[in-house]
Amino acid sequence: MNLSKFVDELPVPSVLKPRQKDRFHTYYEVNMTQFQQSLHRDLPETTVWGFEGVYPGPTFEVESGEKVFVKWISNLPDKHLLPVDHTVHGAHLGVPEVRTVIHLHGASVESESDGYPEAWFTKGFEQVGPHFSKEIYRYDNFMPACTLWYHDHVIGITRLNVYAGLAGFYLIRDQRERELNLPSGKFDIPLIIQDKSFHPDGSLSYPKQPKNPVHELDTSIIPEFSGDAIVVNGKVWPYFNVEPRKYRFRLLNGSNTRFYRLKLDSEQLLYHIATDSGLIEHPIGIKEILLAPAERVEVIIDFTNFEGKRIVMTNDAPFPFPDGEPVDSNTVGKVMEFRVVLPLSGKDTSEIPSFMVPFPKRRVQTASKFRFLTLTRRIDSYGRELMLLNDQDWDAPITENPKLGQTEVWYLLNLTNDTHPIHLHLIDFQVIDRRAFDVEKYKQTGILDYTGLAMPPTPQERGRKDTVIAYSNQVTRIIMKFGPYTGLYVWHCHILEHEDYVMMRPFRVLL
After folding, report:
1. What is the per-residue pLDDT across 325-363, written as a single tens digit (0 to 9) for each?
2. Domains and CATH numbers, the chain
3. Which of 19, 195, 320, 438 could disulfide-pair with 227, CB 3.0 to 4.6 Å?
4. For the segment 375-396, what is each residue's pLDDT rounded down to a tens digit?
5. Is 479 strand, coil or helix?
6. Is residue 1 very low, low, confident or very high in pLDDT (cuts 50, 70, 90)?
């Protein structure tokens, strides 16, 4: 479809208001429903799923340490909006077609409130999954200021539920952040970037079959999804009117599969100030930013001296990343447009500070456990790719049982031809390095033979992370301390088509 670009203004998600709030706790109720929303001027309204009648959902704004309770309520229909493959684990015939469970991505929470994939529920909690334990989730927010997001995490159909619209921002604020005098208020803008495809009637398009159809099945999972339109905050290729001053943007890759390599066609610097889990030590001026699915980055863009200009945010990440086809510069190569057309509403006194927060590096010598974990690929009985962690299915016995307070180093050995963004629940980690190795030798002998020098994390990754890019034929090392909670969590690839089939494993934190 040939849709005009930059004809719809960027929506900024509203801030969700709590049902109750006192000095001890804050309580929200959030409804999931199906509704119609205009995603582009030239498209009929699109049927989507969302929270509180809007896609993306409204933004939570909470304080570090604030005790927040949320009742996630499903009022979704019984029939799914998108094609369900019942051969996928967890989506088999006999379970309700529409199920949800919400994960607060990047949060450190008790296991019962983490959105475990089998803790799903249906409309009115009429049916629940085997790990369902409570209707009201508790978030203690024991984290510094950071940009989190909430999204569906149900086993077998996460890719469909997120694509249908079940995602939104969750921002934690603190006093240290306020003291830094960063751009704030209407100059602090969250941006969720996704790719989608549409039918001429405005409805969402998602394939029923991969490029090489599985003739035995009416609907089959696909190895990855590539949309041909970029949607930001629920609008296709929007524009955003700005003043000639500094703005803070919270960038989230909310796509199923697509990576983004973002830059401005004005060639000005983006001042990188935060990673997935919070502020970094010093701002970094960079020309481009790489975002894998689920990664977040915060940047300051200074539009001073750009009065009257139109600046396009572009994307040149190949698909699949990093060795796939070059992007079409007329479609997914463009993200949104900034128009510096608003008069200055007041003097810009915000700052790009030289120092923000200390970042003590975790030392490998403090680790008491080293785990060697593989990313592998199999072919299933239908000839389809089956992506696995440690070559194990979801239901295999749990093999990762870190102890509370224990520091571990994980070696992620990518034996596949794909690049995988790996996400761990509960904790944040630091990227140590990446190193090429002899994959064939490892497959045949189990011997880890490095073929290159260790490469430190990119400047953009030198902060607290919860998602890391594990490149093909490389070992990616990460270090983390497990806690402050015990219980059952998961780690997985955040390419949603891989996560669903079935590149996800549980881990249990023990006392």
Report:
1. 999 999 999 999 999 999 999 999 999 999 999 999 999
2. 20-174 (2.60.40.420), 185-340 (2.60.40.420), 364-509 (2.60.40.420)
3. 195
4. 999 999 999 999 999 999 999 9
5. strand
6. confident
